[in-house]
Amino acid sequence: MTLPIMLFDDRKLKPSFGYVFDPTCLEPYESIVSILWKYAWQNRLPGHLITVQLTRKPIDPYEGIAACERQVDIREVHNALGLRLKTVRESMLPEALHRSSSPWLRYCRKCLNVGYHSVVHQLNRVEKCPIHDIALITSCQNCGACTPYWLNALLLDAPYRCSKCRAIYPGILPSLSKRSPMQKWGRTAITRARFG
Ligand SMILES: [Zn+2]
Ligand SMILES: [Zn+2]
Question: Residue 46's CB: how many other CB atoms inside 10 A?
């Protein structure tokens, strides 16, 4: 007798399979990393299952892909997370800007404290967070390691944490259920810095 085995195709995880994502938790120019961290967090999904949803091409999720339009399939992410194409597109930098952005995850502690990381934080020309006016950080304050800004199982498995020592970047984990939306001046500051 054959046992009823549920075949589970990693590449077909969609909201209809019971995975949900609340797009109202996103803010302007929120980075693809930030979006995927929220998705991982809300669905308790391991990083390797998320990484394989980012492109139709077969990839090694531990190696991963660059966080740019050239490698991430915008339509796949739009389908998998139920996000607007515009939101997915704005979560990455256009090619020219991507090339002159930081290869390391660059973050503002205060923004991460509310679960937000922006593509603006990756821009080398932006030294301080446009919202909080504090210096952007690339290294872990606990172990000193820099995390490559690269979509793979390692990074996506560690939402808001250093993927090396697991220290929480903002000090405490953000409360995603009790967050308050970004204020209008914050949205304006981030939008201005994106095009500045
Ligand atoms: Zn900030
Ligand atoms: Zn660390």
Answer: 13
